[in-house]
Design goal:
alpha/beta; 8 helices
Amino acid sequence: MTQGAAARMTEKIATVLAGREPSLPARAGEALARWLELVQGWNAKVDLTAARSADELADLMLADARLLSEHVPEGRRVVDVGTGAGAPGLPLALLRPDLDVTLVEPLQKRVAFLRTAIGTLVQEGELKKAPRVERARGEDLVRAGRSFEVAISRATLAPDAWLPLGAALTAREPAERREAWVLLARDEPPAHAGWAPAIDLRYRWPLTGAERRAVRYVPEATKNA
């Protein structure tokens, strides 16, 4: 990335994160810029993103994480299933270092990218609490008895298939700490027995104006308590 392109990307990152500046960790902006630089470099040889412009890339990689960073409770164990190039889990970890984040991706080339990117950020001092990376599918973790408090995924499965999987990934946790996020573009929020929406947020990606929706589901018993 040329110096001019890097400066423009920095401006785009600032636009996406507008309003979050007072609570951002030190060097979060630099870390996000470095990660996006790596995404662009690797994307020529590894299918990481279909973004066709810098605006699309910044929105696609950062906007959902920015929203989640304001709503995931402190100190939670988070899993991002089908993370691809790392979104939204990696930027969420950068914006919220109190979270314990696991990135799950089945494709080896993408896993190699994630490990390289995280290693680079750690080596350059821009990431102090590194997310774990696992080559797996969400169903593999359920079968292995793995457990998390917050389950997130974007576009890996249809919403009505993702919500039951997200619920299963949190099944071993206390009910009051369980939540699954469904990130939507055009689909309507799904339903799953025993779970109910607790937060339903409509928003726009700031650079491209794409309409989005994020729904936080919790066990019905905790919502009605």
